[in-house]
Amino acid sequence: MDAREVVLGRVRRALADVPAEETPERVAVERTYLDSHQPADAVALLAENLADYRAVVHRASGEALPGLVAELLAGRGAASVVVPAGLPAGWLAAVPPEVRRVADEEAVTARELDAVDSVVTGCAVAIAETGTLVLDAGPDQGRRRITLVPDHHVCVVRVPEQVVDSVPQGLRRLDPARPLTWISGPSATSDIELNRVEGVHGPRRLDVVLLGS
């Protein structure tokens, strides 16, 4: 008996006492399972899981954010940065003027983006239990491609308002018709010998700033 027959046998035994007239279309299935394990501190869990995925996590207040963003860009030697159209202007206020700002415009090609050092964005939702950032191409996030091509991504998460416990909670906040990008750490893959390679199809370095009061 193979695994398929074992599984189907269990299904048949589970349905043995169900009346024939009870079809899935006629009988609603009660779905009372939990959609969250309710962590004591969702923001702390998010930070822990982001770090586990090799993202670098920072905390900042609104006053300290511009200086931190400038420091992160300088630390990567960034001479250019992509700026979404709706990014709050104050976030880059401390970045020196000689760092070239690249607007998120349709005319900018993937080759041109590949020559840009960094990108700074906000996010739509951050999921604590999985350490995942979700972008939905909102005004402070821009087109999906600007976070997939440059080698360095600085993502600002407003805490606690943008943090949810779980994926089900996150999905309720998102519009499935929008282009969603789910980010769990820097872009990475492993070969057959489990050698990890970062930066294959996205940023090699992900800095996440938890922005609180």
UniProtKB/TrEMBL annotation:
<dbReference type="Pfam" id="PF02589">
    <property type="entry name" value="LUD_dom"/>
</dbReference>
<dbReference type="InterPro" id="IPR024185">
    <property type="entry name" value="FTHF_cligase-like_sf"/>
</dbReference>
<feature type="domain" description="LUD">
    <location>
        <begin position="46"/>
        <end position="211"/>
    </location>
</feature>
<protein>
    <submittedName>
        <fullName>Lactate utilization protein C</fullName>
    </submittedName>
</protein>
<dbReference type="InterPro" id="IPR037171">
    <property type="entry name" value="NagB/RpiA_transferase-like"/>
</dbReference>
<dbReference type="InterPro" id="IPR003741">
    <property type="entry name" value="LUD_dom"/>
</dbReference>
